Amino acid sequence: MELEKKQYQIDFSKIRDRVRVFAPATVANMICGFDILGFAVDEPGDEVAMYRVAEPGVRIRSIAGDDGRLPLDADKNTVSACVKMLLAHLGLENELGVEIELTKHMPIGSGLGSSSASTVAGLFAINNLLGDPLSKAELMPFCVEGERIACGHGHADNVAPALMGGITLIRGYSPLDVIDLPVPNELYAGIVFPQVDVPTRDARQLIKQKVLLKDAVTQWGNIAGLIAGLYESDYKLISRSMQDVLIEPTRAILIPEFYEMKRIALSAGALSFGISGSGPSVVAITRGRDVAERATAEIQQHLTGCDIDSLKYVSAVNIGGPKVLG
Amino acid sequence: MELEKKQYQIDFSKIRDRVRVFAPATVANMICGFDILGFAVDEPGDEVAMYRVAEPGVRIRSIAGDDGRLPLDADKNTVSACVKMLLAHLGLENELGVEIELTKHMPIGSGLGSSSASTVAGLFAINNLLGDPLSKAELMPFCVEGERIACGHGHADNVAPALMGGITLIRGYSPLDVIDLPVPNELYAGIVFPQVDVPTRDARQLIKQKVLLKDAVTQWGNIAGLIAGLYESDYKLISRSMQDVLIEPTRAILIPEFYEMKRIALSAGALSFGISGSGPSVVAITRGRDVAERATAEIQQHLTGCDIDSLKYVSAVNIGGPKVLG
């Protein structure tokens, strides 16, 4: 990823003293669109409070909601590392002092774009603190680079929807080509996070590097159908199209009770059901909040019966991405 | 393909004495959408004249424009075989007498959906002769079955756009799911048919049955971008998206001067350039007629310099599909 060489003018009189920002969790792949589609949800998400201080440098004041799993070292923490990257790019790393409070309102390693939410919250917050010198489109490559710092790869299917909100298509990476897709207004997501550990890297390594062309054709027929369905607000077409014949059969193995949860969600009336990102979170995509509430409640009840703890979230597709809380 | 069991009411008083029908050529795949996308063009196409006669049975009276390559035997000819299939389905094969004149205005084995145009012309004509008992949607499975009779496979990426007109997506086959896509009104096709022989079956057999997942991801990112571009009438997005990284590298080997023709088309301002169906016809997709005229003229001039005869066609995307000529 080549970062923009453009010089940004920073007006020091406009730098704010503090800002508090929310950035949303995201559902990468959107069932059938492996590595190219993703959408943001209204909850859960991450919260970053950022303070301008006299002493130059970037420091983490505190992290809440992470059970002590995230590093406080500013070079290792995703939020501070991304802030440092942007400040370095702007030539401000030795001039500005910034302290950060990170509050995780979402589980780590859940397949909900936890690191992307932190990346986007951090970059959106520092840009806002500086008086918004960069547009969202200009922030995007920094978010992708932030994801690379955090995860070791520069996929954009979480950071793009986290930054833009709504449903995004990453058409390609050379150059980065992010397209906003329309969001049918009754589309809801019912997310369940079974509290079992599925590291993203393991989930990726399971996936075969070669696939049958005929399966790829089925998959891209579904992807094309989903895009048309979103433009037409055709929920039946969306439902028929959101099927993953390539990735789900492999990744589902890592997720306990996956096919029973799928059966429950579809019986409850979900348009589709599948894995969020690389899992283990699963998502029921529904028309309307009621179906999402019912599907997640029934899934959670089933998991409880299997002695599996879980968290659930029901949300409309988030519109607008990160927001300034105050 | 399961054909509809529904009974159609045929009103014998409405059966016409004769009908003449045009059905359009089609560009399958639309560069990046292997086996799922296709569009129809205003020219070339096939013409079928159909006559009701007293003696029951289906017969071919004449075929023009085929250089004697097509069979006159009513069981072997695509048009008559499709007509017989539909009449048999309607229980009319021993009651009705039909004679057919077929005029090919397009080359056979050119990658322009020649057999599909004949299939659609024949079925559209007999349906019209009978007083249009079947809707287009009801005719579609018969067209796919006709393609199977003609080519040994039931792909729909030629018959679907030939019957529906415009740009069509075949989302899937179980059941057949054909979706009309929007047609940006400045979209043109400049087609060149280099007169070399590339049988469809050979062209298909060249294609590898397994592909790299990363290439499939690139391809479906492009497909998704193309669908969004069509809905947005975003010609730049359409241009960026219409790239085929999977099939073209293999099939282009069979087409003389392919990469030079591509260079010429893109230099002339085409949005994209690629193989029509399985070739050897190639297509420049352009914004406006002028670019399509210029690209095809320059390509043809180049082929002439290489001692390769060729035909060219410039056309808007066809809207509406087959039409009754009189």
TrEMBL record, chains A, B:
Q: What GO MF terms are annotated?
A: kinase activity
Q: Which residues bind ATP?
A: 107-117
Q: Write down the HAMAP family for this protein, in alphabetical order.
A: Homoser_kinase
Domain GHMP kinase C-terminal, by residue range, is: 227-302
Q: Which gene encodes it?
A: thrB
User: What protein name does the entry list?
Assistant: Homoserine kinase
- Report the EC code(s) recorded for this entry: 2.7.1.39
Instruction: Provide an example Pfam family for this protein.
Output: GHMP_kinases_C
Q: What is this protein's function per UniProt?
A: Catalyzes the ATP-dependent phosphorylation of L-homoserine to L-homoserine phosphate.
Provide the family line.
Belongs to the GHMP kinase family. Homoserine kinase subfamily.
Cellular location of this protein? Answer: Cytoplasm
- Its domain of life reads Bacteria
Its primary localisation, in coarse terms, equals cytoplasm
All copies of domain GHMP kinase N-terminal, residue ranges: 77-166
Q: What pathway is this protein a component of?
A: Amino-acid biosynthesis; L-threonine biosynthesis; L-threonine from L-aspartate: step 4/5
